[in-house]
Design a protein that fits this description.
Elements (H helix, E strand, L loop, with lengths): L1 E13 L8 H4 L5 E14 L3 E6 L6 H8 L7 E6 L2 E2 L4 H6 L1 E4 L11 H11 L4 H14 L15 H13 L5 E5 L7 H15 L7 E6 L2 H7 L2 E6 L2 E6 L1 H8 L4 H10 L1 H6 L1
The structure holds adenosine-5'-triphosphate (ATP).
InterPro entries: AAA+_ATPase, ABC_transporter-like_ATP-bd, ABC_transporter_ATP-binding, P-loop_NTPase
Family: Belongs to the ABC transporter superfamily.
GO molecular function: ATP binding
Amino acid sequence: MIRIQNLAKRFAARGATPAKPSLASLLGRRPVATVQAVDGLSLLAPNGSITGLLGPNGAGKTTTLRMLAGMVTPDAGQIDVDGVDALAQPRQALARMGILADAHGLYPRLTARENIVYFGRLQGMDAEAASARADALAELLDMKPLLERRAEGFSQGERMKTSLARALVHDPANVVLDEPTNGLDVLATRGLREVLRHLKSPAGGGKCIVFSTHIMQEVEMLCDHVLIVARGRVQAQGSVAELLHSSGQTRFEDAFVHHAFGAASQEAA
Ligand SMILES: Nc1ncnc2c1ncn2[C@@H]1O[C@H](COP(=O)(O)OP(=O)(O)OP(=O)(O)O)[C@@H](O)[C@H]1O
């Protein structure tokens, strides 16, 4: 179970050099603008359920998941993972999460198995248990032929599978994925959907799954609960049916636009 309360993060963003140079710009100091990436966001993601963060570009989805993963420190708010305060005890919280942030962090000279086992060792598993788990995950993710191949040269889909196996090696109760279908073809996307459905089922461990996306179809097909995020805030939440109902729309894309940008932008479209 993951609970986030009133999370906030502001970034300093260096602005452009002004057209009319000031003393500061002549000294090489550019004006600093700020971006409120996440602005009081709360969510509750239960076990045995898929919770989706759906939002346009720049909505604050990745920043939220990076704070959950301990990669970015929030300015304010609380994160609770299975009762562990993730900000006070990040290592204990991370041990309870499998995080798929992107599929580029593999060691190219190691085989898929070695990448998975190495990560298991970092999570405190012994090498034998981690290797047995790599076999089980290769079965689940349909990647057995990849296990003894070096990650160098893996396709996008192959990298995603290896990264997901690495994230799941310690059998975490919570799985967090940032835009997991980015760059995947239709078969790989279907395969990933099947895996996520399995992981949330009792047979798959009844895991708590949280993922971000900007793809409506993913959300319609997978999510039990959807948070529509825009401008760093949750603008609406509920099941797909509830969001359709509360927006008065029949198509989910229209419901999303209504909730994310307001009724006026929908009329403009
Ligand atoms: N390290 C950073 N420095 C400055 N600004 C940042 C930084 N990280 C994120 N931002 C800004 O915060 C806002 C939210 O970005 P974020 O990546 O969380 O959005 P997102 O919803 O994941 O978008 P996308 O779907 O485009 O990936 C954006 O305006 C982005 O430019």
